[in-house]
Amino acid sequence: MTRSKAFCRAAVLAWACMFVAAAPTPSEAQQQPPTSRLDQILQRGKLLAGVRFDFPPAGYVDKDGKNVGFGVDIAREFAKRMGVEIEFVQSKAATRIPLIQNGNIDVEFGSTAPTKPRDEVVDFSMSYIWDRSVVVVPEGQSKKPEDYYNTDKRIGAIQGADFARLWVERSPKANMKYYQEYPELLIALAQGHVDMALTAEITAIELIESLGPRAKGITVGQPYMSDPAAIVLPENDSKWRDFINWGLQRLWADGTFQTLYKQHFKIDPPFHPWENGQLQPRVMEIGDPKRDPWKK
């Protein structure tokens, strides 16, 4: 063997030894944390679900201090079908994305519009709520959104809410005043701190009723946009996102979704999940339990 051939062989053997040494042993591989949030939840035995505490009927806290709402009940269904416990973590318009990004929650069952800028940093399920954004005004005042565009009237909205951003696009000179929670916003309107408030239609109706005397003298006006909402998920985790989308369709197929929607929104769902008015073909088939741990 020539000297050059011997050198090349020795170099190849050296590289091979380096790769073998770097490869994880079976015990090390077992100790590596699961890569998908779905696997982490099953290993932990608990679903960390972000839900709203202030946004009926998607999510709020009732008079007994219990988390209730459509998103809350959908979260409970997922935990039940996965065979795990559930822990509710409060999410707000300003905190829901950071909670997902920082790993404080596994998923957010709130009322978040799946906008393109948000989709750059988190992922979304298919839309699971459709509502209308409306103006809420003092009784006797105009209920027409266009009467409030580009005026000096004080417009109240929730910080981080997408329909507030859309209002500013339509009304660049809007005099905006931002709040953190919806009850605070509507009470401010009733007390005259703002002249009009922006919110979702069903939320406004529910809050005016639940706030009672504190919301006296305000009423729901006309809509100015349709407002889809989706479940928020960590970015680039297709295994977890697939499972959530399959689950939504399965809850629809067995009627659970429609029952909960009508219970909380007082109407039948004004939409159909997936595409063209039908569910994903064979979505009810349960696959590999490591990827599809759905329990009927």
Which terms would index this structure?
296 residues, D-Maltodextrin-Binding Protein, domain 2, 2 domains, eight-stranded mixed sheet, 11 helices, 38% helix, disordered N terminus
Summarize the structure.
With 296 residues, the protein is of the alpha/beta class. Helices cover 38% and strands 25% of the residues.
Structure characterization notes:
The chain has 296 residues and is of the alpha/beta class. It has two domains: 37-131 and 228-265, D-Maltodextrin-Binding Protein, domain 2 (3-Layer(aba) Sandwich), CATH 3.40.190; 132-227, 3-Layer(aba) Sandwich (D-Maltodextrin-Binding Protein, domain 2). It contains eleven helices and eleven strands. It has helices at 3-22, 26-31, 37-44, 70-82, 96-101, 116-119, 162-170, 182-190, 201-211, 238-253, 256-265, and strands at 46-52, 54-55, 59-61, 67-68, 85-91, 107-112, 123-138, 154-158, 175-179, 196-200, 218-233. Strands 5-1-6-11-7-10-8-9 form an eight-stranded mixed sheet, sandwiched between helices. The protein has a three-stranded antiparallel sheet with strand order 2-3-4. A hairpin with a 5-residue loop joins strand 3 and strand 4 (67-68). Helix 8 packs across helix 9. It is elongated.
